[in-house]
Amino acid sequence: MRVALFVTCLVDGMFPDVGKATVSLLERLGVKVEVPFAQSCCGQMHINSGYASLAGPLIARHAAAFDGYDAVVTPSASCAGAVRHQHPALAERSGDAQLGARVRELAARTYELTEFLADVLGLDDVGARYPHRVTYHPTCHGLRVLRAQDKALRLLRNVRDMELVELPDAESCCGFGGTFALKNADVSAAMLADKTKAIGATAAEVCTAADPSCLMHIGGGLSRLRTGTRTVHLAEILAST
């Protein structure tokens, strides 16, 4: 099986350890991973900000970069959601039948990390060990677009020496939403305050999630409160032994 890593902009630019952890985990499980150098932004932020026409060339570039791979894995539920749902819709709207076919085909073999582990490799235990008290935030795209939260929880429950504690009102948005946090800063801050309060109630050492963007937002809030709770991407926990 030829497997490619879709790194994503945020992982590449701000959280490279998440990408490294994803590759380390998959290779430990016997999966050889390639990283196509031609990949770039998938265009999600353009689409979400109302500039869908500008995302067209990025969608075409994305399809070309990952052509020929049996599976494309990404440590980002939001970017996986963009490829699976936004790309096909926009490609169809463009009227380019050839691009539409390529994008739909790629969407069918694109997986968020926990989906690949559970649905393709058939695993709910990856042999991880993480001796900490952890709470899990199911991000909006993972929860509502991919519907993959059960996969993440099954994997986390099988991590050795880890205490997984339930997050109150877990399904509430953290308030990030990409440019939403910039355009609606007051609302975003209020939502973040609710989320950090809920995390604080768990007395967890670590808050984890499958989206680096949400963890960036939550991590900023927790650090300003000096709670002592840190954010760690799910891939980094599952890669730990």
- Structural class computed from helices and strand pairing: alpha/beta
Distance between the termini: 25 Å
Q: Strands of the largest sheet, in order across it?
A: 2-1-3-4
Helix content: 40-55%
SSE sequence, one letter per element: EHHEHHEHHEHEHHEHHEHEH
How many DSSP helices? 13
The low-confidence runs, each spanning 5 or more residues with pLDDT under 50, are none
What would you call the quaternary organization?
single chain
Q: State which percent range the strand residues make up.
A: 5-15%
Domain tally: 2
Radius of gyration, rounded?
18 Å
How much is the average pLDDT?
Answer: 94
Shape summary: globular
Number of strands: 8
Q: What about the largest sheet?
A: 4 strands, parallel
Describe this protein's structure.
This protein has 241 residues and is α/β, with parallel strands linked by helices. The chain folds into two domains: 3-120, no CATH class; 133-239, 3-Layer(aba) Sandwich (Rossmann fold). Helices cover 55% and strands 11% of the residues. β7, α12 (212-225) and β8 form a beta-alpha-beta unit. α5 runs antiparallel to α6 (97-108) and α11 packs across α12. The two termini are 25 Å apart. 46% of the residues are buried. The model has no long low-confidence stretch (mean pLDDT 94).
Structure in a nutshell:
The chain has 241 residues and is α/β, with parallel strands linked by helices. The chain has helices spanning 9-13, 16-28, 44-48, 52-65, 77-94, 97-108, 113-120, 140-145, 149-157, 180-183, 185-202, 212-225, 234-239, and strands spanning 3-5, 33-34, 71-74, 110-112, 133-136, 163-165, 206-209, 230-233. The strands form two sheets. Strands 2-1-3-4 form a four-stranded parallel β-sheet, with helices on both faces. A four-stranded parallel β-sheet has the order 6-5-7-8, sandwiched between helices.
